[in-house]
């Protein structure tokens, strides 16, 4: 009888980063259970995590997995299997010629918060260190970039200051722009336990929808989409009037309060209640609860981030925490919940167009010089890279000619799919590196590079509370698939030869060698992990950063000493001013459409869509409307409707729910074109919800406003 192996890893879905134990016989995953020793979940798993083994069944793997490299030499050809050497040689020649002819900025990399930290590190070095372009961005731009910009503007570094334990230590939890019960279920379990242990704990939820999270709140603020800055400024206005701000803390540890104080004078309860569409007394109650409590903790996610004013929303909430000194103490702080499993790790290695290794900034010449020294190259290019939406616009404009997509599916997840599809058709070469051959982006690939996935990968990830987990592979690589970092390195070595560069940049044989280089890059930085090693992570378990050399443990909570990683050690208030959504409703497009996650699905469903029981909660896409709006339009429950914006349309069954206020609508984000029109039949613009979303971006974070579009809804 074959012995059952148990391998420690994490769940590959959300940023809670639950530890799992994979049970396998070495050839297939037989089961999965929560890791009782992992501090993120102590053995608990949600519906998605507990069915991971079902998504890894051999039958499904055979049907959906990309197992061999495929290549086509001409766009009109069909891709056919080719060896790794033939495929990577072809790619390297094409890259070298394109770089010589059009310069390094004619290349773009679009990667993913699903990659492990080591994969991310290598891709970043490949783009910025070898190719010589900063055109590397990731789907984390669609996820956490406004949180990053908000933290940096106010606190000086991209570092969530709180930790999961704070949920048990707080008096008030303020959940905003997050259906935590669905999107971060195991974290929400902690909140349920904290409430049972402390019946006095109050929960305030601000959300346009009355989600399951909102239904459980002590106080629900059903704000209109995009009005968060007005809400936070209004709460600060009330805290000022009622003497709930902490002037001693403000004077000692912050700067810039005078200008903000002047601004929020105008955000009277009546004005804010009108903008937000909420009752004045509820706003006042929320401000009092938040300001008076011994410890207030804010949990927030895409409702703040996926917005054309996402950075201001994040900064305005952090302003509120700074002004009331609700930060740097047990149970208090602004705490962004990471969407993807390793969006944090990607940020740590600088795997985005405006970042460099270890939270360095591309725009800072000293930071560029430090990274060049670490990598042993002359310089890192100074020209800012294209961020996600900008990158696809540049591809469509013919400026970027080669696009390498790794571990993500932009032909479903990016806003305004018409633009994205045009870009993918226009590119001279599209490379898709993925574990699955079933994603919409693969349809556009000239080259398909098969990659390993959950249960097959080695490396590390960082979760929402800055905790790094060492992941081990339970299974061997299937077919001819390679690890993401291996693919990048094999390619890089070929490109180095063609570009006559010294072959020194990618000497790694193991993920540990990559991680050790990343670790060294963090020395002296806010996320210093020089006291950690793979061995320590294995022996002591997952650890939080910072964990500098000589430390015995990581830091649970940041800024307890009132010192911030800014030039003068003070946090900065940002003078946040409310801006309406990018596309207001009007008579032609009268509905405010919001989008979001469903309880049992993950992103584009390439994995969760293979597990039958995950459709029990919701089996098909729909548009959720208020009963009043449906009645006015003679739409009955289940009737098909056209949901149309200025950019596109999709047909969906309409479902009535009291979670939505009249004038609003909601569509889950998971279903793509195959539901509506069949794979490849994409000429009709039916690309799922992103047929209708718009690519308006935040001026600082460059994150698109995926959470709101003006639409009309007509009976089909
Ligand atoms: Fe996975 Fe997130 Fe569920 Fe944990 S809460 S099991 S990380 S999906």
From TrEMBL:
GO cellular component annotations of the record: membrane; oxidoreductase complex
GO biological process: cellular respiration; nitrate assimilation
Top-level division of the source organism's lineage: Bacteria
Keywords: 4Fe-4S, Iron, Iron-sulfur, Metal-binding, Molybdenum, Nitrate assimilation, Oxidoreductase
Keyword match Manganese: no
Residue ranges of domain 4Fe-4S Mo/W bis-MGD-type in the record: 4-60
Similarity-based family: Belongs to the prokaryotic molybdopterin-containing oxidoreductase family. NasA/NapA/NarB subfamily.
Official protein name in the record: Assimilatory nitrate reductase (NADH) alpha subunit apoprotein
Source organism of the structure: Paucimonas lemoignei
From-to range in the entire protein, with total length: 1 to 716 of 923
């Amino acid at each position: 009888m074959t012995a059952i192996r148990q391998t420690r890893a994490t769940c590959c879905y959300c940023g809670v980063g639950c530890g799992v134990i994979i049970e396998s016989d070495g050839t297939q995953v037989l089961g999965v259970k929560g890791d009782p020793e992992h501090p993120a979940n102590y053995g608990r798993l949600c519906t998605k995590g507990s069915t991971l083994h079902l998504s890894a069944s051999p039958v499904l793997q055979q049907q959906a997995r990309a197992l061999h490299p495929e290549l086509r030499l001409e766009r009109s050809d069909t891709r056919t299997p080719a060896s790794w050497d033939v495929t990577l040689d072809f790619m390297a020649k094409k890259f070298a010629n394109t770089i010589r002819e059009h310069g390094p900025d004619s290349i773009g990399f679009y990667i993913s918060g699903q990659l492990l930290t080591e994969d991310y590190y290598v891709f970043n070095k490949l783009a910025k260190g070898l190719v010589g372009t900063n055109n590397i961005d990731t789907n984390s731009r669609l996820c956490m970039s406004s949180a990053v910009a908000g933290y940096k503007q106010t606190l000086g570094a991209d570092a969530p200051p709180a930790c999961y334990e704070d949920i048990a230590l707080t008096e008030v939890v303020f959940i905003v722009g997050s259906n935590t019960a669905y999107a971060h279920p195991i974290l929400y379990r902690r909140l349920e336990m904290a409430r049972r242990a402390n019946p006095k704990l109050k929960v305030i939820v601000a959300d346009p929808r009355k989600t399951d999270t909102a239904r459980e709140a002590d106080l629900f603020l059903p704000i209109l989409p995009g009005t968060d800055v007005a809400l936070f400024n209004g709460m600060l206005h009330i805290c000022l009037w009622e003497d709930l701000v902490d002037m001693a803390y403000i004077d000692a540890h912050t700067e810039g309060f005078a200008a903000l104080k002047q601004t929020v004078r105008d955000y009277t309860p009546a004005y804010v209640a009108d903008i937000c569409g909420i009752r004045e007394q509820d706003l006042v109650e929320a401000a009092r609860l938040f300001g008076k409590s011994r410890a207030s903790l804010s949990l927030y996610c895409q409702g703040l981030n996926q917005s054309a004013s996402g950075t201001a929303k994040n900064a305005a909430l952090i302003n509120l925490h700074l002004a009331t000194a609700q930060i740097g103490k047990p149970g208090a702080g602004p705490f962004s919940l990471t969407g993807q499993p390793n969006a944090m790790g990607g940020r740590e290695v600088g795997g985005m167009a405006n970042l460099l290794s270890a939270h360095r900034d591309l725009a800072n010449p000293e930071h560029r010089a430090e990274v060049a020294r670490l990598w042993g190259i002359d310089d890192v290019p100074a020209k800012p890279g294209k961020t996600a939406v900008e990158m696809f616009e540049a591809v469509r404009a013919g400026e970027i000619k080669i696009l390498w997509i790794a571990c993500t599916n932009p032909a479903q997840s990016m806003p305004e799919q018409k633009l994205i599809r045009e870009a993918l058709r226009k590119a001279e070469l599209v490379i898709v590196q993925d574990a699955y051959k079933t994603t919409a982006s693969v349809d556009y690939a000239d080259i398909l590079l098969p990659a390993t996935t959950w249960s097959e990968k080695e490396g590390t990830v960082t979760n929402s509370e800055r905790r790094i987990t060492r992941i081990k592979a339970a299974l061997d690589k299937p077919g001819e698939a390679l690890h993401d970092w291996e693919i990048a390195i094999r390619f890089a070595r070929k490109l180095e030869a063609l570009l006559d560069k010294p072959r020194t940049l990618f000497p790694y044989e193991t993920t540990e060698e990559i991680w050790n280089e990343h670790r060294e890059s963090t020395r002296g930085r806010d996320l210093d992990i020089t006291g950690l090693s793979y061995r320590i992570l294995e022996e002591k378990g997952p650890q939080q950063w910072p964990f500098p050399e000589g430390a015995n443990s990581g830091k649970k909570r940041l800024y307890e000493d009132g010192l911030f990683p800014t030039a003068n050690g003070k946090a900065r208030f940002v003078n946040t001013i409310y801006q309406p959504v990018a596309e207001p409703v009007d008579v032609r497009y009268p509905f405010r459409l919001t989008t979001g996650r469903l309880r049992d699905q993950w992103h584009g469903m390439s994995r969760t869509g293979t597990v039958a029981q995950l459709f029990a909660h919701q089996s098909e896409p729909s548009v959720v409307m208020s009963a009043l709006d449906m009645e006015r339009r003679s739409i009955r429950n289940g009737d098909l409707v056209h949901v149309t914006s200025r950019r596109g349309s999709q047909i969906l069954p309409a479902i009535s729910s009291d979670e939505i206020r009249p004038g609003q609508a909601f569509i889950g984000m998971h279903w793509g074109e195959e539901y509506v029109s069949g794979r490849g039949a994409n000429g009709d613009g039916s690309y799922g919800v992103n047929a209708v979303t718009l690519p308006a971006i935040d001026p600082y974070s460059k994150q698109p406003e995926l959470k709101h579009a003006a639409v009309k809804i007509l009976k089909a």
